[in-house]
Amino acid sequence: MKLTYYGQSTVELVADGKTLLFDPFITPNELAKHIDVNSLKPDYILVSHGHGDHVADLVSIAKRSGAKVICIAEIAGWLGKQGITNVHGMNIGGGFNFDFGRVKMVNAVHSSALPDGSNGGNPAGFVISSEGKNIYFAGDTALTYDMKLLEDENLDWALLPIGDNYTMGADDAIKAAAFINCKNIVGVHYDSFPVIKIDKTEVEHKFIQAGLNLKLPAIGESIAL
Predict the structure, then answer these.
(1) Which residue ranges form the domains of the chain, and what is each CATH number?
(2) Which of 29, 35, 75, 189 is deepest in the core (most CB within 10 A)?
(3) pLDDT tens sequence for the chain (225 residues)
(4) CA distance 35 to 40
(5) This prediction's pTM
């Protein structure tokens, strides 16, 4: 699998020949201004919740690419009103088999409302099973003991928010890694706004001290999972 980071929580995952794009927020992100959003051609777009810093480019990319959007039922309904009909609605605890592998929607502790004030349903995370690997995309979440339910998922990698203020910070992300029994972590949801700016050296040191493998790819950088 190949993961490409586009800033905030926007990541692209190539799995079994399909391109999955998570939480597209590129155009308004000053840190990602060198990324050509029109070059992205996902087969699927996965949306964790409705906040603007996760859906800013959702409708435009979905319309241009024809990608199938995987999201909670309330966001699926909202997308229909935006003219997006290639949508697969889900809910917490449910799973579904797609042509690239299986997606399970799991709990996240946060809030969710769409940019126009519409109900965004419950926030969520995803466990992606493809190519014999299991990847956890936590979405925006606080540390929650529900994460212990994922320790038997045999997770190979976890994408965890580390920016604090709106989500877990580094210390709680380290606890989350123990809860989910996963040592390979990609940090997301940091640096895009002043209140979530991190000291990368300090954060990396904390993860090393905890015996964890933390990756903080540059915006536009790809890594192998």
Answers:
(1) 2-224 (3.60.15.10)
(2) 189
(3) 999 999 999 999 999 999 999 999 999 999 999 999 999 999 999 999 999 999 999 999 999 999 999 999 999 999 999 999 999 999 999 999 999 999 999 999 999 999 999 999 999 999 999 999 999 999 999 999 999 999 999 999 999 999 999 999 999 999 999 999 999 999 999 999 999 999 999 999 999 999 999 999 999 999 999
(4) 9
(5) 0.98
